[in-house]
Amino acid sequence: MLDSSISQADGLRLLAAPNAARVIAMASHGDQQDELPLLWSLCTAIFESGYSVAVLDATTTESAENPGLANLMDDSHWYGNVLADQMPWSVIPSAHGLDILTEAGLDSDDALQQLGKLFPRYGVLVIYAPTEALVSLLPDSGLEPLLAVSSMQRSLVSAYQALKRLLLDANLKPTIASIMPFPVRSNNVDLSQTMSQRLRECAMTYLGYKLDAQSVPAHLSDESPSDEISLLSTRLLENAKSLYRDTMGSPREPDTHHVHNKLLGSH
Question: Residue 210 maps to which CATH number?
Fold first, then answer.
């Protein structure tokens, strides 16, 4: 496992808070210039709805200098005396940690429960990961990953490829967000709608799948969420996966021995 100091593990104690979480996912398909502002705006909207948010960012790998999910999984001794509401919105590097869960051979429900036990005091976990990671980790989970498509041609192509993999390889039916350029101009809106329509047509023609895309404006992360962003966040929360809750309302020791054994056997 990664070498991390006790102080780093202690610093990660703040990443927990009082109830098991709802889980939503967002697929990254190589269009981070548009995906990330949307993600941050959604986190702001979710937080303003009264939920603390942890983003498990699987586009970033944990390291000794930037510890994250894998370190939490390895340092289970830090449980107990966790502080609530200290960091209501946190971004946790998670590429290696999600790989560990995948390699452990857990089914999607068990993998999500492992994550819930690591973050018992957060209201919402947002798994932001490459499409391949979501397909490997969460097949048949019932999650409806957010899939963003912008007005760029390359975004349309990669979004379609991601849609195909999610549907056919993991039985995951994405929520589609069509991003309108910001500031909004009439020609940009037309272009965005055209891209959304083309994605719709490709999905129906080649996949036999009828998708519904919600238009949202591109939005800076430090601004108040637009009505469209708030509506999208509400939709995602309604379709979120709820994790089991501790009936006593207190954090439980995570059952990570199986994961650790698989990790040790793979290195």
Answer: 3.40.50.300
